[in-house]
């Protein structure tokens, strides 16, 4: 079995080939094609085809969005539990002040560097991308969809 490539800031985003390179382009093409077809042959049938294909494209996009939002909710819960165990009391009581994006970004930080990153995030409006850039010991997340 092939070993996984160590995850870093440069390679942590994940593309799903069937979704990003097949389903999305096919549905995008279908909607564009249906618009062109409607322009050439206006009518109730072509308008219905356009509506149907647009609804299908929206559904495909929303399914992906719903999965990502659900994962973000789970990650927020996991990180709150993790931070509760890792942080000392002054920082532990401030966990609710972290934004969703900050919590999601902190999942990549090792246990050792997490407290300092949380302190920095709470000290100012540290963006999730800045948190990820600051991580020295990357904690991979291979399960993200």
Whole-Å distance between the termini? 21 Å
Average pLDDT figure: 91
Shape summary: elongated
Secondary structure class reads mainly alpha
Helix content: 55-70%
Q: Provide the number of structural domains.
A: 1
State Rg.
Answer: 21 Å
- Provide the succession of SSEs: HHHHHH
Low-pLDDT sequence parts: none
Mind describing the biggest β-sheet? Answer: none
Count the helices. How many? 6
Oligomer: single chain
- Counting DSSP E segments of at least 2 residues, the number of strands comes to 0
Q: How much strand content do the residues show?
A: under 5%
Walk me through the structure.
- The chain is an all-alpha fold.
- It has one domain.
- Helices cover 66% and strands 0% of the residues.
- It has helices at 17-40, 44-86, 89-92, 100-106, 114-123, 128-134.
- Helix 1 runs antiparallel to helix 2 (44-86).
- The protein is elongated and about 65 Å long.
- The two termini are 21 Å apart.
- The relative contact order is 0.13.
- The mean pLDDT is 91.
From the structure above, extract its key features.
0% strand; 145 residues; single chain; mainly alpha
Question: Brief description of this entry?
Answer:
This protein is mainly α. The protein has six helices and no strands.
Please render the helix and strand layout as text:
Layout: H1 17-40, H2 44-86, H3 89-92, H4 100-106, H5 114-123, H6 128-134
Helix pairs in contact: 1-2, 2-4, 4-6
């Amino acid at each position: 079995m092939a070993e996984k490539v160590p995850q870093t800031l440069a390679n942590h985003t994940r593309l799903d080939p069937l979704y990003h390179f097949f389903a999305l382009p096919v549905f995008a093409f279908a909607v564009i094609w249906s618009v062109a077809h409607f322009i050439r042959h206006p009518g109730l049938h072509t308008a219905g085809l356009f509506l149907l294909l647009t609804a299908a494209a929206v559904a495909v996009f929303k399914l992906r969005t719903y999965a990502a939002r659900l994962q973000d909710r789970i990650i927020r819960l996991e990180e709150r539990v993790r931070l509760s165990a890792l942080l000392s009391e002054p920082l532990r009581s401030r966990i609710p002040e972290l934004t969703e994006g900050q919590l999601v970004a902190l999942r990549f930080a090792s246990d050792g560097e997490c407290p300092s990153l949380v302190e920095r995030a709470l000290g100012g409006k540290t963006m999730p991308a800045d948190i990820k850039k600051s991580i020295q010991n990357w904690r991979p997340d291979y399960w993200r969809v």
